[in-house]
Amino acid sequence: MDPATGTAPLLGDFFRYADLLTDEEHEVVARVREFLRTEVAPVAVEHWTRAEFPHHLVPGFAALDIAALPYDDLDGPAARRLLIGFVALEIAHTDPSMNSFFGIHNGLAMGSIDLCGSAEQRARWLPAMARMERIGAFGLTEPDGGSDVARGLRTTARRVGSGPDAEWVLDGEKRWIGNGTFADLVVIWARDVADDSVKGFVVAQDNPGMTTSKIENKVALRTVQNADIVLQDCRVPESDRLQNAGSFADTNKVLRRTRGGVAWGSTGTMMAAYEVALAYAKEREQFGRPIAGFQLVQDLLVRMLGNITASFGMAVRLAQLQDAGEARDEHAALAKEFCTSRMRETVALAREVVGGNGVVLDYGVAKFFADAEALYSFEGTRQINTLVVGRAITGHSAFI
């Protein structure tokens, strides 16, 4: 129990990583957890089942004052990446869909503007986004481009005119764009036809050249509103081009930062599945006693806890490297690959403990089991992140 807030540690925090937080950081985490417990948890399954987004929760998220945490000068100095990670873990522990919504807005969209925008652009967009008065989305992935998007970006940008009154005309398609159906601002990445460089543009939802449609029939992160986006003669003023984005290396700065967030979200997801399985094992009786007393069940639970503890430690150390300015692409890539792989195994083990009841939403495991598949795939597949790390440790690139 944290003495400052009275908050009990999560059961999956076996090595007490939360002890690394300061009293003030514990207070932030406690505030987030209480909101999740009272407001998000009661409606999470209902909205997931209907594949609807709970828009009524956004003001509550805004009141937590956590969207500004990663950024200087919005609400004071930026928070430690450790605290930002614990916030993501807590949200994912309740609902991975809502953590994805928040991470897309807070990490990918705001991060693109923070890292690639001018001082004027940061001042124009980030304060309202930090207050969650304007929600952001991130448009990189395309229907025929995922892992090869760095080289195969097909959405084009064509400059018309010159000087400050110039416009850019965007044409192309994007897919799997989280928050895309309702975001006020969508960061679109496109290839400049003049010099073949990758540039970023902030496109308003009401731009007549951009149309969005919801992707239906998902089996993971169903609450997240992923969109197909079509850009046809979409005109964007020069003032809305991210002024410091001139290559995919700039795009990758954003991804390097947010891959660490996926590690935290994956850890929170598997912790939640473990806790459900542990509680179920203590209550479920077979052969006249709780199955928690069976050796094979304990083996499954301990394997889950080991996966969680190893992933938690990697996420914590990555956050420390980020705070020290020493995190590299390969650090974030290994954390994303390892934590999501261990999560995928852990939620499967949790479903095994719960048995046949693990395939219905009523028992808590099924939603985490399904959501894990999306977390495993986005922000770079396991194979692509493996190649990033492999290049770093061998000095040889295996990319084709």
TrEMBL record:
It holds the Pfam family Acyl-CoA_dh_M. Gene3D superfamilies: Acyl-CoA dehydrogenase/oxidase, N-terminal domain, Butyryl-CoA Dehydrogenase, subunit A, domain 2, Butyryl-CoA Dehydrogenase, subunit A, domain 3. Keywords: FAD, Flavoprotein, Oxidoreductase. InterPro entries: ACX4-like, Acyl-CoA_DH_CS, Acyl-CoA_Oxase/DH_mid-dom, Acyl-CoA_Oxase/DH_mid-dom_sf, AcylCo_DH-like_C, AcylCo_DH/oxidase_C, AcylCoA_DH/ox_N, AcylCoA_DH/ox_N_sf. It comes from the Bacteria. Its cofactor is FAD. Residues 22-133 form the Acyl-CoA dehydrogenase/oxidase N-terminal domain. Residues 137-234 form the Acyl-CoA oxidase/dehydrogenase middle domain. The keyword Acyltransferase does not apply. Residues 252-393 form the Acyl-CoA dehydrogenase/oxidase C-terminal domain. PROSITE patterns: ACYL_COA_DH_2 (PS00073). PANTHER family: ACYL-COA DEHYDROGENASE, ACYL-COENZYME A OXIDASE. Belongs to the acyl-CoA dehydrogenase family. This is Acyl-CoA dehydrogenase. It comes from Pseudonocardia xinjiangensis.
